[in-house]
Fold VWFA domain-containing protein.
Amino acid sequence: MSDPHTLARWRLVLGKTAEQHGISCEGQAEAERVEQLVGFLFEPGREGSNQPRRRRSGERGAGGSSDGLTVPDWVDQVNELFPNQSKEVMQRELVKRRGIGELLEKPELLEKIEPNLELVHTLMTHRDLMNEKTRVLARKIIDQVVEDLKRRMQVQVEQTILGAIRKDRHSPRKVYRNLDLKTTLRRNLKNYDPDTGKLLVDRVFFYAAERKKKPWHVVVVVDQSGSMMESTVFSSIMASIFAELPAMKTSLILYDTRVVDMSDKLGQPVDVLMQVQLGGGNDTALALQYATSLIRQPARTILVLISDFYEGDGPAEKAMVDQVRYLGDSGVRLIGLAALGYDARPFYNKPTAQKLRKVGMDVLICTPEKLAECMAQIIRG
């Protein structure tokens, strides 16, 4: 190929090894700018550093030389050169690979980054390092991501669970919109007349209307380990959705080596997330003991444990398993989530998870909608 533009595009695709075969971006100004911006992210030795790495003579990385390029310059140029989808991917990589000092010190720079889960993780992890102006902006960004996720989840989750609550028993009240057609047909099959080909219905079944009381208690217990960040975000949102349902009581418990009851903040998931302490040890047995103290009707309770199930020494693990067994034997329905989210990559203690399964806990990795379906199955019995 002799077309410089085509060669430059192939150089961007193939990386620095292409230069060994005479494929480069030389003379293509826009391609060279793209090469420089990509190199700013992916050059060897770049990860975790706030400062550009000086090149040795003659060295070339995945992109062109990015010496002297600062994070603000990089953000401005990426916003100018790349379409939204590509820009969001690169900004996530910036947050993941580069030091975040400049982001925390300069609110005007933070405003230019597209809000996403990776950015939320960074802001939650380093919020104690922020100045007051940046902290206000960080809260606004977290709130935007949370609200977007909640809108995405809310309709289907509410429909799934409310549908189950309304259909967990029948009522003598004959309300057409509550007609249980499936049960009506099944219970009247004995009245089928083969001569006429008609089904004679002598009893019609109707679902009960939504109960005025809150018959189901959902207890959400969340491990604050750093690896559970995404699940923590989704858990706080799910708990806030559950709390808005008229036929549910919801409790939200966060824990590490201590236990914090966040049930009074269920309507403000951002307030919950701003108090999360990512990382450190954990004591799941202690959290489950506290959850047990909140339960009044075990047979009408669903406990959702979000954890990676790493408990350290043998006694700690045994205490957790024993507490799960106690809850299961008392009639509580138990769901363990190694991950909750749309793109969650679970890293969890599989042998411990297997022990929990044996004592009555369903251990899952699922989306919010799948969790709602699982809970609906429990409610229907």
